[in-house]
């Protein structure tokens, strides 16, 4: 397959062209079947080193990159920030330079500060993948969400997608807005005014403060967690009140199209942004499929970046 991904890194969805997004989704598609086989191994990344550098907690993203790297034959190292020299006061750039000196091929970085991953990319020779930086971007999440949607609906353009909840603190929302609008979908944001950044409408989205009007006629309902770790002070009166107005229940979901898909990037807070019965409804919810396809998307991202590493040419 002729692969033409012209970037050294994957720092965000913003700036990727529709063709580049489609390339990543098509390649990810080819990994889904591989991951469902008993033997899931390829040796495309044999001899390559992938370091997961996570400065924030993660279940899905870190495990998924680890599996993706191992299934492509790479050596994968998970750096734990709790036992690293970060605790001894080393700066982010010094840590990155130290790891870079060990000649990894790819670094996957998650950091609580928006922009931190781009900063690192300016200081290292290896490829960098943004595993989530503050409330800025989480590109592989948006790609896996798009892959799930495309598999169920056959396309992205023309669909109406509602992203609901804590938009203010959500990198998932930002990456999804970039991806979906680039691919021709319509995006509606549904949130209380306190959880919406003032300038958000400039991103080409519709804004609703009421779940019922926001979900009206939607093809996809994407729910987000209240990201309390990024909040200073209270942004909502209480979890119970939030659930009453913004929690996804069957009653509110009835406004969306009858076959609307329910998505959530995880981790879910049941009874806060989503009712348990809705989250577990196997006829509507694709939340676990998002997790499954996340591995395929990360394999695709590792493949395109690895193919741009000069030293991998002989493996092609
Ligand atoms: N797992 C996603 C993220 O890292 C969403 C969340 O944490 O709520 O941004």
Strand count, sense and barrel status of the largest sheet are: 5 strands, parallel
Distance between the termini: 10 Å
Work out the helicity level.
25-40%
Q: Could you say which small molecules are bound to this protein?
A: aspartic acid
- The ordered string of helix (H) and strand (E) elements is HEHEHEHEHEHEEHEHHEHH
Q: Can you walk me through this structure?
A:
It is a single chain. With 316 residues, the chain is α/β, with parallel strands linked by helices. 36% of the residues lie in helices and 14% in strands. The chain is built from eleven helices and nine strands. It has helices at 18-35, 60-71, 92-101, 116-121, 139-153, 171-182, 211-215, 239-246, 250-253, 276-279, 287-307; strands at 49-54, 75-80, 106-111, 127-133, 160-164, 186-190, 206-208, 220-223, 261-263. Strands 7-6-5-8-9 form a five-stranded parallel beta sheet. A four-stranded parallel beta sheet has the order 2-1-3-4. Strand 1, helix 2 (60-71) and strand 2 (75-80) form a beta-alpha-beta unit. The longest helix is centred in the C-terminal third of the chain and has 21 residues, at 287-307. The radius of gyration is 19 Å and the shape is globular. It starts with 17 loop residues before the first helix and ends in a 9-residue tail after the last helix. 44% of the residues are buried. The mean pLDDT is 93. Aspartic acid binds next to helix 6.
